[in-house]
Amino acid sequence: MDIFQILQNGETSNIEFKSTLNSEHLEKDRKERLVSQMRYRLDSGKGTAYYILGVYDDGTPCGATPDELEETLSIIEATAEEADARITSVEPFNKNGEFRRVTIQQEGKNRKKHLIIGTIGHVDHGKSTLLGSLTTQIPDDGKGKTRVFSDFLPHEIERGLSAELSHLIYGFTQKGEPLYMRNPLDKKEMAHLIDECYKFISFVDCPGHAPWLRTAIRGILGQKIDYALLTIAAEDGITPITKEHLGIAFGMKYAVIAVITMADKVSEERVKSIEDEISALVRTVGHIPYRIREKEDITIIADKVADGFIVPILRTSAITMEGLDLLSSLLFRLPSTATEEEYKRPFLLYIDKVFTVRGAGTVITGTVNEGVVKKGQDLLLGPMEGVFKRVRAQSIMEHHYLMNQASVGDLIGISLRGAKREEIKRGMVVTDSLHATAAREFEAEVFILNHPTRIKEGYEPIIHLKTISESARFVDIYERDFLCTGDMAKVKIQFKYNSHFIREGDQFLFRESRSKGLGGITKVYP
After folding, report:
1. With b meaning 16 or more CB within 10 Å and e meaning fewer, what string describes 36-74?
2. Are 258 and 234 in contact (CB under 8 A)?
3. Residues with Cβ within 8 Å of residue 276, at least 6 apart in sequence
4. pLDDT digit string, tens, across residues 258-268
5. How many helices (H) and strands (E) does the chain have?
6. Could you tell me the sign of the dihedral formed by the alpha carbons of 227, 232, 233, 239, in that order?
7. Which residue, among 524, 364, 345, 494, has the nearest Cα to 429 in the 3D structure?
8. Which one of 199, 269, 426, 484 has the minimum C-beta count within 10 Å?
9. Nearest to 448 by CA among 489, 476, 411, 403
10. How far is residue 464's CA from residue 484's CA, in Å, rounded to a whole number?
11. Which of 110-124, 272-286, 433-447 has the lowest mean pLDDT?
């Protein structure tokens, strides 16, 4: 409802007006009244309440200063915690005086279902355009009209090539109806969609240009994706980059969805030919292709895709919007790949980005790999020269949506107290495990995907593990003099420059020039 209509209508079932509050309202009796009042508003709104701060009971602005509004907001936040609720959005307004609309959500009332899907594939195969049209229901004009929702760097927009990871969200109602966005770049609209939806998808759009393979690998390995969505342009078909991205996804044991894009540009025979090529490629690596033609096909396979053996194949066009309804239906039906065991483990997040935000301080971003993190929780950050530093999670946000806690699979930003921007690097972790250790050496079982000659001791590839990306050295190749393409062996590896938080069972990819391989850690040397 329009904010000015709310002010005119006055307080109703789940809407409360407040002028200003101060520390006196945190005294026992007064705070209990505030908590009881908030619980009533939350119950009336079935878990959601709206507080308008800075207005009198009749809806007119009271002339509160910014400092008074901030103090009032802090009192409301403390009240929400007592009422087992959280503030999910704060909207400022200024007409005849400043005031704010605060949305409060009761914890546990509407736990959102959430998936992370990484889009991969060759450059110019329509990844960003597909996501732009899917999330907005706006057809593309054939010139990249909807691609701009993913390409946000100036040179990306100018050249039409994604160079950095970008994120879009796509929500659903409980009945599976899509919640489209007018502008996927609007922060308030993102937060509102998450607040309103029953389930949402976080898309991690990975660049497909060969020079940015390192960034694409970071998107595939570092974001804890549930599924990989591989795009293949109908005109170009399968390319070496297509095979490379698919090989990485399968190597990391991700379930894959194959989407043919730009189907409007070619004949029906050409589309069928591409479907045949994809099917043949998928079969060569032991997977089962499944062509989706109608919604009944989705009903048959949706709950089986997560196992990683079945690869759905869909045909789409961002111009005619062909196939986007089927893709949407499939996405709604896909289950999360997170396990109950992951929720029970200590909190763990590998840091992807770090920056400074005015008013929030040092902020890190990444995907929750394991466990649960709560606002105000003490954590360990590191390793920093082999040790971990104690910090505190001041606030948590997912796609500009404020949260009191986050769990496995949430793609979040955390404002940290106790750490400076320059201390933190990509590849570090934040965790609440008291047993976190750092290591530079480890043993692993490796498989050589491709190498033009022989790999011997002293070989120095780049190791990609979660968000870690660092040069390393093969210290020892056990029981072998050298390795070639297709070989598997046990090796000892040492990071060249830094120690990292790694564990037995972690999977990684290594590459150097034209050579690539996969590995799994079997032993860590602290």
Report:
1. ebbbebbeebebbbbbbbbbeeebebbebeeebbebbbe
2. no
3. none
4. 999 999 999 99
5. 12, 28
6. positive
7. 364
8. 269
9. 489
10. 20
11. 110-124
Contact 207, 164 (CB under 8 A): yes
Where in the chain is CATH 3.30.110.10? 3-106
- CATH fold of 441-525, please? Elongation Factor Tu (Ef-tu); domain 3 (2.40.30)
Q: How many CA within 13 A on the CB side of residue 187?
A: 9
Strands 227-233 and 255-261, by their bridges, are: parallel
Task: Retrieve residue 398's tokens.
Answer: 């997912």
**Strand segments (E) across 47-112:** 48-53, 85-94, 98-106
Q: How far apart are alpha carbons 52 and 290 in whole angstroms? A: 52
Residue 300 has pLDDT above 80, yes or no: yes
Which DSSP state fits 79?
H
* Start and end residues for every CATH 2.40.30.10 domain found in the chain: 340-431, 441-525
Q: What percent of the chain has pLDDT over 70?
A: 94
Segment 60-79 shows an average pLDDT of 92
CATH match of 3-106 with 3.30.110.10:
yes
